[in-house]
Write the structure tokens for this entry.
Amino acid sequence: MTTIIRGGTVVNADRAFRADVLCYGDKIVAVGESLDAPHSAKVIDASGQYVIPGGIDPHTHMNLPFMGTVTADDFFTGTAAGLAGGTTTIMDFVIPDPKQSLMEAYRNWRGWAQKAAGDYTFHVAITWWDETVHRDMGTLVRDHGVNSFKHFMAYKNAIMADDETLVKSFRRSLELGAIPTVHAENGELVYQLQQDLLKQGLTGPSSHPLSRPPAVEAEAANRAIAIANVLNTPVYIVHVSCAESLDAITRARANGQRVYGEALAGHLVIDDSVYQSKDLEFAAAHVMSPPFRGKHHQAALWHGLQAGNLHTTATDHCTFCAEQKAAGKDNFTKIPNGCGGVEDRMSVVWDAGVRTGLLTPSEFVRVTSANAAQIFNMYPRKGVIAVGADADIVVWDPEGTRTISAKTQFAKGGFNVFEGRTVRGIPSTTLAAGNVVFHRGVLMAVEGGGRHIDRPAFTPVSAS
Ligand code: URQ
Ligand code: ZN
Ligand code: ZN
């Protein structure tokens, strides 16, 4: 299949320029003014629009078994929804149960992901430690294209990694040329605050943010950064939600430490007033960790993106329907944690970031695609409009509008944290691996059309 995208303005992380883009099969084969194309080529008119690299969401959970249930979106519905929003690659998580073989968990997730409509790749969580974990980390890097390992510092009595696990896994990651990532919340403090609130009979969803104040997140962010500093490893902090955590990253980076930060689209525009709603189902639908914060934290996160102390935007797409969330109707600690967003991230960041002048179009590409590609070693296959790159391309209509609603979304879960928000800046066409998978509201995602993306280690894999 040959496709020519004519008349648009290509926007990469470094510059914006007028050019046509010619795709052959799943690759970009030419970028330039007034390109020739075979008569048989499919022509996409991009005049008056931007032509940007397909979005990369570095943080999703499709088909996740969690807190006694499984997320509403599987790898087909979740990646299809992403394609509708301009996201052509997701980075999901293999999360072994404690004592479960990493390789067994990895095989499970690879099986679930076979149905993906868009490309996918996996961070692997280290939820326990022994010599088999040490061994399997090497196998995953050497033979399976894994170059990032996740550590949940929250979720005590479940998947929480203690300091011994953090230290051993960070050290092993360095040896292998992989990057450690963390969910930074002090799980011991969360647990204690949860028990205190329940003892006072405060069982509703409004207690969720009270059990996870910014200080609980910042302690863990500082601790992960300190461990990385002593062991001389890089570290990537997922879903940075508050100014205090951002300050820890900013300080470390100012000292030359290699620390990266991720902001969720939800944390950038939604505040903690949602937990005060009298509609407990509505409040429970917003239960995710770290929780939505007060408005001043959002301003800090935007400054973090502008200053280059936050590098990527993600969603942590982890959808549960109302019936699943109701598991916690008498005890907020039982509400499955997670919200959606994979379909809306890019429009929300464009509308709140570029349209307001906080970000340039190139900075938008940086934080929605290029930085994730570079940090996790998929660049320049992903994250840029250039010859040889995958033909993951979004024709972006900066003036187009859409009102976000669970009623019209492709994602499952029956709820949308951005409900009712009218965004300016939407995809008009999405190509994934050279195929048009979305055009002006019509989704043509193909189950199983996505590919697993290997990510090479950052240094030669050690012999061990
Ligand atoms: O903690 C995470 O990232 C997963 C379990 C999704 N849930 C959430 O509340 N963020
Ligand atoms: Zn998390
Ligand atoms: Zn997550």
Q: What stands out?
A: The pocket of zinc ion (ligand 2) is lined by residues 183, 238-239 (CB under 6 Å). The chain has two domains: 2-52+384-398+424-443, 55-375. The domain at 55-375 is CATH 3.20.20.140 (TIM Barrel). The first strand starts at residue 2 and ends at 6.
